[in-house]
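ok so for the tutorial part 2 we go from a plain amino acid sequence to predicted structure tokens. step 1 is just haveing the sequence, like this:
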Amino acid sequence: MTCNGSFFARQMKLIDFFKQNKIDLVNKKIVVAASAGPDSMALLDMLVKMQEKMHFKVLVAHFDHQLRNDSQQETEVLQNYCEKNKVSLFWAKWDKHPTSGVEAAARNARYAFLTRIVKKEGAAYLLTAHHGDDLLENILLKFIRSGNPEEMNSLQAVGQMNGVALVRPFLAYSKQQLLEYDQEYGIN
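step 2 — the prediction. this is what the tokens look like for a chain of 188 residues:
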């Protein structure tokens, strides 16, 4: 995926990912976990542009951790995008911050919310925009922490979380490629 690549080529790469992993989207609802960051906005935009042609419905779920002063702006970016593209947005705020273990607690609260939305809406899949750079970081951190090679990769392309099918279609993409997509298509 390069800045001069066509949307059709990017679309085909994403379609190939779904085919290779036997993920049938036809007549299904999918929930995209969106933070309003460049990665999730690229995923959201690609899927929104594909949904009519491929006969699936995109729903967006956003969890505001309220850990930064500007987190409300992310919610507003998503509200504007979803309103413009006629996509349903589900969002929640995290009000109960622990005094320690914030990162793990935030991740647990976020995934509890996301999987609850998938189940409530009868969606088939939860998609996240984890990319290749996230995968490398995850592998290194796990190896440094445990030294056990068997624990190094918890970012699977397709897996399960809380009884929900979790899909990460961007693991073959770099952060730079997603930034180029956003720039090319004017994604905020």
